[in-house]
Amino acid sequence: MSKRTTILLDEDVYERLVEESLKRYGTVKAVSKVLNELLKEALKGREEVMRLIYSGKVAKTSVKEFEKFREELSRRLES
């Protein structure tokens, strides 16, 4: 179910939405549809990241293994 609302967009953001609307649907009247799709995509990505962060971890490692990994990573980043 759709809800009507008003949002204030920067001009450049609005122009990009209009361009995307034209590209996807061939009309500027689909700006709301495009915005809704983009927001859903962005929120889904965030939800997935949060799920991964807070989910149970499946990898098991010892402190010694972790320290070895950290040292190797540090060496790679410094080179």
> Shape from CA axes?
elongated
Low-confidence stretches: none
Helix percentage? 55-70%
Tally the helices.
3
Mean pLDDT: 92
Strand content: under 5%
Structural class: mainly alpha
> How many domains comprise the coordinates?
1
Q: What is the CA-atom radius of gyration, in angstroms?
A: 22 Å
| Count of extended strands | 0
Could you state the order of secondary-structure elements as H and E? HHH
- Give the end-to-end Cα distance, rounded to a whole number of Å: 54 Å
Largest sheet: none
Task: Tell me what the structure shows.
- Helix 1 crosses helix 2 (31-54).
- This protein has one domain (11-78).
- It is elongated.
- The chain is mostly helical and 79 residues long.
- The chain has helices at residues 11-25, 31-54, 63-78.
- The chain starts with 10 loop residues before the first helix and ends with a helix.
- The model has no long low-confidence stretch (mean pLDDT 92).
